[in-house]
Amino acid sequence: MSADSCLPETRPQACHISLPKVYTAHISLFDNRLMIEKVIIRIHAWEAELKCFMSPETQAAKTMEVTDKATATRKRLVGMMNQHYQARFDEHSPAADPRSLSSQLRRMVESERQTHANIIAAWEMCTNDLVTYRVNLTDYKREAREA
After folding, report:
1. Nearest 5 degrees, angle CA 112-CA 116-CA 121?
2. What is the number of other CB atoms lying within 10 angstroms of the CB of residue 68?
3. Full pLDDT tens readout for the chain, 147 residues
4. How far apart are CA 86 and CA 81, in angstroms?
5. CA 39 – CA 29 distance, rounded (Å)
6. 29 with 35: CB under 8 angstroms?
7. CA 38, CA 52: separation in Å to the nearest integer?
8. Distance CA 33, CA 93 (A)
9. How many CA atoms lie within 13 Å of 89's alpha carbon, on the beta-carbon side?
10. Does the model's pTM come out above 0.70?
11. Most C-beta atoms within 10 A of its C-beta, which of 48, 59, 127, 142?
12. Which among 47, 56, 137 is positioned nearest to 92, based on CA atoms?
């Protein structure tokens, strides 16, 4: 009995791809083609995704400011550092990736504001009344898990 005889004769209709820590996708195959209507989601570390989704504003890379009195060398150095910070942010942050879970959820919430009014209210409270938001944060997380 050969090793190939225990393999199924039909091709699988779906395959699951997992790459370490950054990317997980479920791709369905139909007639050896990718199905166009499937959504590919890039999943970053859970803490990064949650922080990106829970923050009221979309996150951006940190940058250093340059004063007008700075020398040309200092301006070039700060410019290079800002480029480095931006590249690292683009590579590792879910906010910079439009296919990340948190970015797709944020777009869904912002497009359906009536349906997700409690999330919009939490974002506004985080911006306008940070003390009340932090006091009620555990309740918000509990409600999110139950929903």
Report:
1. 120
2. 5
3. 444 444 444 444 444 444 334 444 444 445 455 555 666 788 888 888 888 888 888 888 888 898 888 899 999 999 999 999 999 988 888 988 888 888 888 888 888 888 888 888 888 888 888 888 888 888 877 776 765
4. 9
5. 13
6. yes
7. 24
8. 31
9. 15
10. no
11. 48
12. 47
- Class of residue 54 by CB neighbours under 10 A (exposed 0-12, middle 13-18, buried 19+): middle
As beta bridge partners, residue 133 has none
> Environment class of residue 39 by beta-carbon count within 10 Å: exposed (0-12), middle (13-18) or buried (19+)?
exposed
Return the SS3 of 134.
helix
Instruction: Locate 137 and state its tokens.
Output: 């944060």
Which distant-in-sequence residues (6+ apart) come within 8 Å of 40 by Cβ? 25, 27, 99
53's tokens: 């989704």
Beta bridge partners, 34, equal: 29
The partner residues of 23 in beta bridges, in order of sequence, read: 19
